[in-house]
Structure formats: structure tokens, C-alpha cells
Write a structure and sequence with these properties.
Pfam families: Pyr_redox_2, Pyr_redox_dim
Strand content: 15-25%
Structural class: alpha/beta
Helix content: 25-40%
Distance between the termini: 55 Å
Family: Belongs to the class-I pyridine nucleotide-disulfide oxidoreductase family.
Number of strands: 23
Protein name: NAD(P)H-quinone dehydrogenase
Keywords: FAD, Flavoprotein
Radius of gyration: 23 Å
Strand order of the largest sheet: 3-2-1-7-18
Cofactor: FAD
Oligomer: single chain
Amino acid sequence: MTRIVIIGGGPGGYEAALVAAQLGADVTVIERDGPGGACVLTDCVPSKTLIATSTRMAVMSESQGLGLRFSGGPDGIVGGLEADMATVNKRVKDLARAQSFDVAERLSYEEVKIVRGEARLVEPHVVAVGDRRVPADIVLLATGATPRVLPGAEPDGERILNWRQLYDLPELPGELIVVGSGVTGAELAGAYLSLGSKVTLVSSRDRILPSEDADAASVLQDVFLRRGMNVMSRSRAAGVERSGHGVIVTLEDGAKVEGTHCLMTVGMVPNTQGIGLEDVGVRCDSRGFVEVDKVSRTSVPHIYASGDCTGILMLASVAGMQGRIAMWHALGEAVQPLKLGWVSSNIFTDPEVASVGVTQQMVDSGDVNARTVMLPLFTNARAKMQGFEDGFVKLFCRPSTGIVLGGVIVAPRASELILGVSIAVQQHLTVDQVAHTFAVYPSLSGSITEASRRLMSEHAY
């Protein structure tokens, strides 16, 4: 029986463990924090749970136009709503623990052994956990990553925070400064704004979400500004310090921003130091991420890696697929290499931003020849009924064949809507085929088929 040791119990680890166990391997997962890893316990699950609450609050706060009134406060629905952060944070942490328990139960059902502790490769086929030695025919590294710390802005867990420390706050931050306008910064800035904090978002670039679709980022930034967020573009933080009952963020140009709390969202660093990789010959890049090929192999044939420690699209879905591919390959099953062009992603802001396949930047640069259509959400009947005005559906297709190459959706629950576009991209469907697919009327998904009809009528092939 093949002995497999997986270092890390997040999606890149536990998904791999399930595949390996079902294929008859003897599987041991070593995890220092608990089943589900940081994704379940401190990162993805907690943040999306918090965001679910904030989104509900935003919907209620903007419902006057639908004829709703809330009698709980003198100023109507806005004045009568407030977030009980003790209850919100308790729910966040309870749900994370429950999800971790579910992962543990699933692994136990498949007879996967779970060892709690810090792991280290002491020999190519031996993993150490304290004084214990675990032999391995195959090793999978799924050690994840840790919030990057900006020198001069070290989190203290009270006023200067990383996102893993938010859920221990006893009350809602009065004036929250978020440093970093990437995905995590935008998600949490928007969430705390909806929950009632006064939010300043410090962005080193000329817009928020600099790596995402420019049209989507523009819509989201307009929403943030309309709701009262202070977005400071082209502003880079040089340091953060405590000041009485608050914080002062100093920018590189010398300007200072004051608030009650500061949230640092300035990227991730891989958890690859001190685990023996250099001793057994596993290569890492200049930033410390494990180098892997498209079937998750490292530079050592029997050692694989998956998830955030590889630096390849830091998404739970990608981590899980990398782990599954690793086990299929290691155990001799037929496997299709990871195709990043098929990966769909979502930013859990309000509205959400989902995308898959070809990007607008690839089209604009000439790297991809594609026809494009962008259909504003306010033309959608269901969006009008629900009072949603911000967003769009954008599709890309080949000019000659009409094959769908990708898309971007900015809308409530865009994470659910993008699946149809993902299927079209992966299965090489044409806009004609999507256009002739029945969509419910009225529905937000109807904008996908409508966009396809517009592309179908515009191209000649």
C-alpha cells in the first residue's frame, strides 16, 4: 500500500487526502492548526461569513427605494440598523469550527490519519512531527501562506491588524484604515463599510483591484465612493503606529491618516521556511514559493506541492484541484494537467466580481483576438425588480468561430452566475449555443444569454 504524507490540512491537502484514500493509499495528514487549515479556520470561511452579514446589511440599508421602512430608529432603515459585532464574530468563529469539524469527519470516514503538529522533511522519504517519524512513499506539500508583514507596520492584534485578527475585536472599528486595495483589501473594506465603520482604503495604484478587469474595478470603486468610503489612490503606506486609542498611518509622501484601527492587506508569503525543503532538494523561487509543474510535481520526483505555497492563483478551488491532480498522477491514474484558463474566480465584494478565461487586458494588448460585448446590469428586468443597478455581463468570443473565450460578471451572486460561462469556456461552446439555451425570465442569468445573442448577431463566421 502506497504511503502518502500530506503536510497541511487546507483545501490543497484534505482534497488530495480524500482522492488518495479512495484510491487505496495509506494517508496521513499533518496539520498544525486543525482540519481545514487556515482557509477554513482563519481566512476564506471566516471572511466570507462576515461578508455575508455585511451584504445582508447593505441590502437592507438600500431598500427604501423598494418601499420598505424600518421602525427601529429615527432615521428610517439606515438609522435603525447596527451591527452587533460580538454576535457577528461569534457566528463567524462558530461556523469556521463547524466547517473544520466537517472536514475532520469526512477524513475520518475515509480512514485518513490526522496528526496535529509542525512537520519537517528530515529525509526525502521521512517526515518528522516532533520526535515522531512518519515514513512516506509520496509527500505532498500543502503548507499554505501567511499574511505579509510590512516593516514598520507590525500587527499587534488590537489596533494594527491582519485579517486573521479581525474576529477577536470586541466592537466594530469606528474608523478603519485598510492598507492594500487588492482582493482581500477590497472585500474587507467593503464589508466593514456596510457594517457601519468609517473606512479609508489606501491604494498604491491608481485604482482599486489593479490586477482585475478595469471596467469591473471602476464599477466597484464608484459603489464604494457612493457609499461613503474614502479611497486614497496612488498612496503607499510607509508605516503604522499606535496613537492613544487609535492609529496613525504615514504615507511615503509624508501625509498622515488617522483612524481607530488599521487593517494590513499587503499580500502573502509562503510557509516554506524551516520545513527542510532545501535539505531534500525541493526548489523554491526567489520569493520562497515551491516550484511545480502542471501536475503539481516539485523538483524532487516523489514530492508534490499544492495550494498557496506554490503561488499559483491563491484560490481554494485551485489548491484543491492541484492536490487532486497530484494524487491522481502519483498513484498512476489518468490525469489532465492544470489549465489556468479554465479557472473561475470571484471577489466577494458587493456587488461581486467573477471572471473566467480571457481577460480584457489580453484583448487590448493584442495577445488574443476576440470580439467583446458588455451588457449593463441595469438593462436586466430582474435587476430592476430587485433594485440592483451596478454591474454588467461581459463576454469574449473568437471572431471566426464564435467560441466563448471568457467573461466577467459584476453583479450580486456573480460567483453563482459565472458557472455558465465557465462551462462554455471549458467545453468550447459557441455564442450561438449559449444564445439558444433557455434562461429563466426574469433572471440575472438572462443577461448571459442576451450578451451571447448580441455577439451572435455581430460576428460573421
